[in-house]
Amino acid sequence: MTRISLGSALGLLLAVPVGASGQNVDSLVGVLASPSVYARAQAVARLNLVPLQSLPSGARQALVQLLEREATGQVSYGETTGADDETYSEYVIDLTRGVLRLQDVSAVRGIAFLGIETSRAAQEFIAARGAAAIPVLDEVWTSKERARPAIITTWGYTLASTTNGLAPEDRAALLGRIIQAVAAYPIPAARAVRTASLFTLLIPLRQISDTATDPAVKTRLIAAAAELAPRMAAASATDVLAQLAAVIAGICRGASGAHQGTCASIQSLVTDAQRHIAAGRTNAAHSVLSALQQRAQAALSDGTLTALEETLVVENARLADSKL
Prior knowledge:
Layout: H1 6-15, H2 23-31, H3 37-47, H4 57-72, H5 87-100, H6 108-113, H7 120-128, H8 134-143, H9 148-160, H10 168-181, H11 186-195, H12 202-211, H13 215-234, H14 237-252, H15 257-278, H16 282-302, H17 307-322
Helix pairs in contact: 1-2, 1-3, 2-3, 3-5, 4-5, 7-9, 9-10, 9-11, 10-14, 11-13, 12-13, 14-15, 14-17, 15-16, 16-17
């Protein structure tokens, strides 16, 4: 895209009517290359008024490319806004909204890097991409710490989606990351847990809320627990063990050494309990679930499970046992 001067950009904006189409849309697309954030913001705002069916492919592509440039810093602009000037933040929101309405899969990178913090719609757009978006989110996680709460929330939407074709190994990866995030990012983790109906994390959330000193954290965790409690109450022993098996897969993903041995043991015990329940062997299931609790407690003692991981296994084994 050819860069145009600020004076030329402003001249074009004055000449182009609101809701313009056809040749006038092409003029607005040209303004997207302006070094002025004010000019780009105005051009984006006017392009967003053009009905989607009237927006040519060139304009759509230009908006997607602009978002990625803004997100990744591919093009540096000499002009900056003042500390109290909200023009740029409002421009980013408008640009993200304009790109989201295109539902263009090529926009994943730009939305992940910049738009993911602006709205639930942006997070759900990323979540709908399923496994294809996970590496991009990993990159954003590493390079943009302030986006981590939005990423955790997006993981929840990704797990909750019934249409993104997420494979079991990818689900395990996201479950593991949400569990790891609980201590450092309790509010977005609680949001992700609620969104994905991860009732097996209810007891850890309650424990964290009991010790939280920040009133905002405590309030959010209590709200998450209140929402999850009826789901836990309605779950059967089979439901609990199915979700626990997925959670353990997340905890154990990439395990090695002694941790791998612990993982193999607790996974085998969960599988045995599921098999006994399916066959109606209640007494055998009770025995296996008791052994599962003991194995997790031993793993906490030898350091192959963390306190949070041990709580997840032990408390959900007890829960499943109580439902038999």
